[in-house]
Structures are given as C-alpha cells and as structure tokens.
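BUG: 3D viewer hangs when loading the predicted structure for this chain

Environment: internal workstation, default settings.
Expected: structure renders.
Actual: progress bar stalls at 90%.

Input used:
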Amino acid sequence: MGFFNLNAASQTAGKLYDINGVPTTNEEFEYDRGFYTSSRLPFNGIAYLNESGVCYYDISTYKNGFPNGLSINSNEGGYVYSFGEMLANKKVGMWMHNEYTGEAHDYTKFYEDAPIGYSLIFKENQYVGRAEYNSNGELIECIGNCE
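Structure tokens produced before the viewer hung:
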C-alpha cells in the first residue's frame, strides 16, 4: 500500500517518499510533509494510491509535493466516492461526493478545505435537501435533509 508516480516505468521506480526518505508504503511515513522523489525533490506530477494491487483509491495531481489540481478518490468496489480540485492541499471549487455504491450524495462548493455557499444533497439519486454554509464553513441553513 502506498502512493506512486503514475508516469513511472514501474511501481518500484515510482515509489514516493517523505522529506526524510521514508516511503509512503511505510507506516512511519509523514503525510503532512508532502511527497518527494527518491532524490528528495518535491514531487510534481500525477500520483496514485494503490492498496490492493488492482484498484486505485486516489489519483491526484501534485505540485511541490502536495495535491494541486484534479483529485479523484474511489473505494475498493471501484466506485468514485469524491472528485474535485485541490489547491495547495486544500479542497477548492465544486466537489462531488458519492455514496459507497457510487450514487450521488452531495455537490458542494469548497474554499480552502471548508464548504461555502450552497450544497445540494441527494439520496438514492433523488434531490433531498440544500445546505447553506457561511464563509467559515459552518452550516447556517438546511432545507430538507442535509445529512
């Protein structure tokens, strides 16, 4: 299990590390310090998280070692459970979050990792509610079901 450079010739060649040279496959890896190449340069490119050898759980674009650009996350069943844009390791713009089965759960705007404005909520592919968040990411109004 670990993060790897999608453009590497092999998973072994594409291993990513923390600033101390600990590979992402090691439980001692420090995720909050970013991803680095084997030569300890900040990773720039597309990385994926592979836990089972057959499924990608996360495919994201990285800049200077941190998620920056499109991010797609899935589960072991192969269903996408969230996707959107990251900017310097924080969610920004519109994000779609899905149920475990891949059905839509919410469509939410983010700014610096916090929900902002309106969020549309779905259950069994049906619209069930609308949440409104203030600039601090706090829920200020719910119409319908906002869970």
